[in-house]
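call fold(seq) -> tokens
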Amino acid sequence: MKSEPVKIKGDGYNLSGTIIKPDASGKLPSVIFYHGMISQSKPRYIKRGEEFAKVGIASLCFDFRGCGKSDGKLGELSLRDWLDDALLTLDYLLKQDFVDKEKVGISGKSFGGYMGALVCGKRNIKSMVLQAPGIYSDDWLNKKYTWDDDFKKRRDEYRKSDKVLDNVAIKAIEKFKNPLLIIGSELDDSCPRNVIEGYCEHAGSENKKLEWIKGADHSLQNEKHNEEYTKLMVGWFKNTL
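ret:
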């Protein structure tokens, strides 16, 4: 397999990414990773991409603005800015000669799961895996994203409210008809069960599945839980791309 660092150019900024490809010719099914906020975990995503390569799937992982080695500063960016990043990087992947444009998937984690839900309503996505997908009020789309205690308190209150399934992410997932795997963590205190189940219940796909990783926290800090997640994800895309 091959791993190649790439620079993805936006409007006045650059994003840091890595493409992982199997040793295969022709057009390849491919997956883009949308990581969680507020930090990236590119080494973990590269390892997951290497597992994809073993089954003939290419992948792209990258850092959203304000994270990792990409340009930008947290506190000066909004959810809509990051949606622009999500679309920019997906379009970059679609332009690569090795990509089968009819077989492209999204793997979104937490905040990245929310981004995946938004993107699936704007691009042709063959299959998705959303792990502990986050959710946000539509009122926050254009606000500068801070990570202070007040924001986290308001976010947590929203996710436990009766309004949590009334937003653009859920409306987008309702229209998604292709294969969808949603993975929740049993001990997650960031993306609660009502959010995880809400995504699945509202999804428009007839081929959808909800899996729970027992004993896992939101970040999958235990490597055993990370390996379980990776196995579920690779298996899903192998069968649906």
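Residues 150 and 156 are 10 Å apart (CA to CA).
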